[in-house]
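mind reviewing both lines:
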Amino acid sequence: MCAHADDPTLVEHDDLVASMIVETRWATTTTVASRVHGRSACRNLASVATSRAEKESSKR
């Protein structure tokens, strides 16, 4: 429990701060995961483009 348990305003403030920290961590985790996924998707697209180019050049 909070050290300021006898003051309900401070307890609410502490709960709000804790909630904001959790939301910030979630947003950071989500953003990082999204960026990693985006990089992976870019590599996959580049790989597909390279494969297509190699396939086309081998037909000639």
